[in-house]
Every structure is written in structure tokens, then in C-alpha cells.
Amino acid sequence: MIVFCTAVAGGIGSACRFFISQTIQKTPSHALFPYSIICINLLGAAGLGFLTGAVTSNHPLLVIIGTGFFGGFTTFSTFSVESATMLMQRQIGKLAAYLLVTIIGSLCLFAAFYQIGQLLF
């Protein structure tokens, strides 16, 4: 049953990523920088941080929502493609900003929301 629920949650996470991505990609500034992927991955890091802080390590919700929803929602593969594309196009400044915002931002948001989850639960 946990595998089924995790799969359903993954589908919901993927659908949410699609809708957020489509909404952000309609903005003119998206062509200049992959804002949708940054937003999705930062939101995912914050959400997973909160969940991890709020529940015990062996709680089924950690698998269902953490692995399922946030696994389907966040997108490391697209992050990798965007990064490789910037590198191949020699857009080093843009790549550096993308890497720093995504990696440092994700770590900071995870840590902050982990603490919030622990404080609230």
C-alpha cells in the first residue's frame, strides 16, 4: 500500500511541477534564466525540510510525501540539463549564479524549514 501511495504522490508532485513550470515559463524573463526550475527545486527543498523536521525518520509520510510527492515535484535532471547547456554555451556567469542559487538556496531552505518543522511538531 505504501508503494501505491508513493506512486500516486509522485504523480501529483509531477503534475504540480508541470503547472508551476508552465505558469512561470509564460513570463518574458524565463527565456533569460531557468526561473521555474529554481523555484520548483527551492520549494521542494523547503517542503522536504519541513516534512523531515516534523515527522520521525520511520514515519510512512516521509516515504509517501518525501519520496513520492517531493521526488516527483523536484527535478534534478532538468537542473543538470540546464547547467550543462549553460556550460556548453560558455555562459559561465549565468551558470555560476544558477548553481549557487539552486544549491546554496536549497541547503539553506531545507535547514531553515527543518528547524521550523521541529519547532512546530
Automatic annotation (TrEMBL):
It is found in: Cell membrane. It catalyses: fluoride(in) = fluoride(out). InterPro entries: FluC. The chain crosses the membrane at residues 32-55, 61-83, 95-116. It is a multi-pass membrane protein. It comes from the Bacteria. The keyword Plastid does not apply. Keywords: Cell membrane, Ion channel, Ion transport, Membrane, Metal-binding, Sodium, Transmembrane, Transmembrane helix, Transport. Na(+) is not transported, but it plays an essential structural role and its presence is essential for fluoride channel function. Its main location: membrane. Na(+) binds at residues 71, 74. Fluoride-specific ion channel. Important for reducing fluoride concentration in the cell, thus reducing its toxicity. Belongs to the fluoride channel Fluc/FEX (TC 1.A.43) family. This is Fluoride-specific ion channel FluC. It comes from Bacillus altitudinis.
